[in-house]
Amino acid sequence: MEQLKQLLAESKVIAVYGASTNPQRSSCRIAKYLMAKGYTVYPVSKVYAGKRLGGREILPSITDVPEPIHILDVFRRSEFLDEISTDTLKVKPKVVWLQLGISNPEVEQKFVDAGIQVVKDVCIYNIHSGKEGNI
User: Fold this and answer.
1) How many domains, in total, are found in the chain?
2) pTM for the full model?
3) Within-domain flag for 95
4) Is residue 72 in some structural domain?
5) What is the extent of the structural domain holding 43?
6) In whole angstroms, what is the distance from residue 125 CA to residue 67 CA?
7) Residue 120's beta-bridge partner residues?
8) Does residue 133 carry a pLDDT above 90?
């Protein structure tokens, strides 16, 4: 837990992959929460590309993020991780943070082999806020 808190303290740029403009979705609420806490957040979604989330334009791909990504916070189902991996390996974020229930051991190993830390089965909001449960 302390390692993850330290990771968040050292990180400044977070890309939220699978961002939604729907306030009922965790990806929307967590992106806005992280923005309010001072992180530079780049929402990413092919579906919502060009729309705005928390005052920031939603980008169609993580390759469109104009600066190095410290944390790629993934809100896409496990079956989409392989598709996501190609662009992830191009931009090489320091960390891929897979939200609760998201897992694909083969893709995770690709990230680790490329020197990318993988965090999974823990919510970034819970670690940052120190609270349990959903935002």
Assistant:
1) 1
2) 0.95
3) yes
4) yes
5) 2-129
6) 23
7) 98
8) no
